[in-house]
Amino acid sequence: MKKNKATTEAIEIAAGNELWLGRCYRLGIWLLSVCNCFNFGIVFILVLFLAFFFVHFLFLILIDRFRRKVFRLDFGTATITIVVKLSVFGLQPID
């Protein structure tokens, strides 16, 4: 069975998003248990979830604007290049 490169990249992006969301959730739970700051932990989890969804939807809007776009995420020592094709997400380009 032949794999589609764009589909594989989209799956890797989704897996990366889920991984970061899980890390944010665990960090918030850690704050709740270790710091014993219930309100701060809840606010921290909510802020991280809102930031995650904001970035996720911003990413989808950018994909909607460009048929094929290369995104470069720079994390200091590591640079990740993501190539996304619009057809992977089933979105139609804006004309």
Binned, the helix content reads 55-70%
Question: Strands of the largest sheet, in order across it?
Answer: 1-2
* H-E order: HHEE
Average pLDDT taken over every residue: 60
Number of domains: 1
Strand content: 15-25%
**Rg over alpha carbons:** 17 Å
Instruction: Based on Cα principal axes, name the global outline.
Output: elongated
SSE-based structural type: alpha+beta
In whole angstroms, the N-to-C terminal distance is 35 Å
Which stretches are poorly predicted, pLDDT < 50 over at least 5 residues? 86-95
- How many H/I helical runs? 2
Strand tally is 2
Strand count, sense and barrel status of the largest sheet are:
2 strands, antiparallel
Features:
95 residues; alpha+beta; two-stranded antiparallel sheet; 2 helices; 61% helix; 17% strand; elongated; disordered C terminus
Commentary on this structure:
By secondary structure, the protein is of the alpha+beta class. It has one domain. 61% of the residues lie in helices and 17% in strands. The chain contains 2 helices and 2 strands. A hairpin with a 2-residue loop joins strand 1 and strand 2. Helix 1 packs antiparallel against helix 2. The longest helix has 30 residues. It starts with a helix and ends in a 10-residue tail after the last strand. The relative contact order is 0.14. The C terminus is likely disordered.
